[in-house]
Amino acid sequence: MAISTAPTAEILDSTILQDVVDGNLRLTSEQAMCLYHEMPLPELGRWADKRCRTLHGDFIRTYIVDRNINYTNICTAKCTFCAFRRDGHEDDAYTLNYDVLLQKVQEIVDIGGTQILMQGGMNPELPLEWYIDLLQLLGEKFPQVHVHAFSPPEIIEFVHFFNTPGNSLEEQIRWVLTKLQEAGLKSIPGGGGEIFAHAVREKIGLGKCNAEVWLTVMRIAHELGMNTSATMMFGHIEGIADRIHHMDLVRTWQDRSIEDFGLNGGGRYKAFISWPFQPDNSPLGRVKEWNTSEAEPFPGDVVAKLDGTGVKSEHPEFGRRICLAGSSSYLRTQAISRLFLDNIYSIGSSWVTMGPAIGQTALFYGANDLGSVMLEENVVSAAGTTWCLNEAKLCHMIRGAGFTPAKRDNKYDLLQIHDGENAPDKMVTDWSSQEQGALIAHTSSNNTACNNSVPLTINQ
Ligand code: SF4
């Protein structure tokens, strides 16, 4: 991969950007910053779209049918952006039992699902055997279902909770991951990435592993042959340079995994998904919002450094003001991720937080994938924003954007290309019964289900 030596501002030149699109030039962090701040949004979208088309072609855009299962909301961490966590003694604290978990998996299998995404709080009461038995049970009952579960912060808490053998943290991580993999774990989701820069992370991710440990968990997963994803939650106290730095770490560690394990059946980051912070019901959401018309620069931007070395003492208001990301900031950030992350296959649109309209627009800003249908969601919905869409609506969104929808699996292999008349969206005769779900309201049986009337709706 060629490293750009062009001066930063020249990245605005179309001939240089064409090299990025063609995969002949890698953006520097400074160039990414320049693009973020200087390039008009539609133009930035066009370049990200070109890069996306180079990688994924002009015709097909994908989605997966899986189910997001949050098996417990009891958590030892106290992330300030989180409205989901509970202490074990709280009335609405929960841990789902195996019967409920198996029922949830059955429901997604019944509608053609191929994967479950299982993440929880970090619950110190659950022993290793609870996870091993669950994974084995899932493998016995649903051998066709891919288990994508346990983000790096959970893995690190497992290391602490289980009195894990090993002479170093790496050995302990490898021991835990090997046990889980042997029991049936197939891949690791990128939860808990948030923003990697230390100054931000120590303010918002109380009790959660730092960036290096997060990245190390993923590296060991890659070494063991498991694929992973990477995520970023932005639009709070961080500066724009923190977002670029976050992407830079993902890109750098991906290079290492590909180089070290790529020829030996190793895994890698298959996807990058970013979304804006959802403020409702969380401590961070009560922090005063920065008025963007203020002449002073946002404290997060004063502190943020492209190399991640920003320190909170550089601005007295750092961490005491948030700058929420609207649609334009979201689309800019996603477009930059598509251009910057030249070694990541998929960029996912975040319609769950942004809503279907922006989620569809994101397909023109570098995203090739709409993620999953949503039967239930508990984490961001606790923070006030979740949209629920079924398979027909996802296909409708993709087709409406001018592409052919295709159902994929966890490896991004295509399972069904919906180019015929029996496509899920083509079978719908009355779209009035297919309105996207309203915001989440349901909390009975310790989960949250989509409050809509489409066939996927359950547990209402
Ligand atoms: S975001 Fe996850 S780790 Fe942080 S408090 Fe919430 S449930 Fe716990």
Report on this model:
This protein has 460 residues and is α/β, with parallel strands linked by helices. It has a single domain, classed as Aldolase class I (TIM Barrel). The protein contains 16 helices and 13 strands. A hairpin with a 5-residue loop joins strand 12 and strand 13. The termini are far apart. The relative contact order is 0.14. Bound molecules: iron/sulfur cluster (SF4).
What characteristics describe this protein?
TIM Barrel, 16 helices, alpha/beta, binds iron/sulfur cluster, globular, disordered C terminus, four-stranded mixed beta sheet, four-stranded parallel beta sheet, 460 residues
In terms of topology, how is this protein built?
Layout: H1 14-21, H2 29-38, H3 41-56, E1 60-64, E2 66-70, E3 78-79, H4 98-110, E4 115-119, H5 128-141, E5 146-149, H6 152-161, H7 169-183, E6 187-188, H8 198-204, E7 205-206, H9 211-223, E8 227-234, H10 240-261, E9 269-276, H11 299-303, H12 327-340, E10 346-348, H13 351-354, H14 356-361, E11 369-372, H15 379-382, H16 391-400, E12 404-408, E13 414-417
Parallel strand pairs: 1-11, 1-12, 2-4, 4-5, 6-8, 8-9, 9-10
Antiparallel strand pairs: 3-7, 12-13
Helix pairs in contact: 1-3, 2-10, 2-12, 3-12, 6-7, 6-9, 7-9, 9-10, 10-12
The protein binds iron/sulfur cluster.
Number of domains: 1
- Strand order within the widest beta sheet: 11-1-12-13
Main beta sheet strand tally, sense and closure: 4 strands, mixed
- Give the integer mean of the pLDDT values: 90
| Strand tally | 13
What is the CATH topology classification name? TIM Barrel
Quick one: CATH superfamily?
Answer: Aldolase class I
Number of helices, where a helix is a run of at least 4 consecutive DSSP H or I residues? 16
Reading the helices and strands in chain order gives HHHEEEHEHEHHEHEHEHEHHEHHEHHEE
Strand content: 5-15%
